[in-house]
Amino acid sequence: MARRKKVYEGKAKILYEGPEPGTLVQYFKDDSAPTVAAPAALEGKGVLNNRLSEFFMTGLNSIGVPTHFIRRINMREQLVRMAEIIPLEVVVRNFAAGPMTSRLGIPEGTPLPRPIVEYYYKDEKLGSPLVSEEHIVAFGWANQQDLDDMIALALRVNDFLSGVMMGVGIRLADFRIEVGRIWEGDYMRLIVADEISPDNCRLWDMRMPEGPDGIPADPKPLADVYTELARRLGVLPSNVTHTTKPTLIN
Q1: Class of domain 6-83
Q2: Is 66 exposed, middle or buried (0-12, 13-18, 19+ CB in 10 A)?
């Protein structure tokens, strides 16, 4: 069998040329992304993230939110559409957590008055800095219409993920997505790309006690996040078990 051509390799995934023009094969590794508070490699993580991303992407496609996902190929690979990735991480925050608490002095776990969308420039050497819409438009990473569409896309993803997570007793504090451009003839549209998994979500267990104001007295991340999330969603494949630390996004 001919050797597949590698297109890109990151910390958590490898992209190979797909079997058809305009497609890629996305392979999930056990290694962790640099923002994940977990060991460098977790046995079986790639298998679980493949299944979880399939679950979320399929759900988004079914409600009309376009994604790059086509189908799962095997335990670690899925077929996806090739897209031009916009060099931004789009973060949606529902609760104060992580750098927002120190940056703005808001207590951890405070519900935000509305979902807040933030942009981070994708550059590991710079530490993926927070950027404004002015930066994005000025440097040509995206135009104003792109930004409007990205916000709409991110908020629809937030509605879907928040509802799914709440249904299994999990609070979605925040998450990040990547957005890509695809062309259909002369028409361009934006789609959700990369993956949706515990690697890019901050998840809190709703079974923890809350104070009188409804704010968790001590917000606790979901324990053993990969396995527990897959178990609650009913997508845990057989023969995959491990214990991990909680995963966070910046």
Answers
A1: alpha beta
A2: middle
Tell which residue, 129, 133, 162, 173, has the closest CA to residue 150: 133
Please give the helix or strand (H or E) that residue 48 lies within, else none. helix 45-62
30: left (phi over 0), alpha (psi -120 to 50) or beta: alpha
DSSP string, 76-98: SEEEEE--EE-SEEEEEEEE--T
The CATH topology of domain 84-223 is D-amino Acid Aminotransferase; Chain A, domain 1 (3.30.470)
Domain boundaries, the chain: 6-83, 84-223
Token output for 231: 């178990």
**124-176 pLDDT per residue, tens:** 899 999 999 999 999 999 999 999 999 999 999 999 999 999 999 999 999 99
pLDDT in tens, 73-131: 999 999 999 999 999 999 999 999 999 999 999 999 999 999 999 999 999 899 999 99
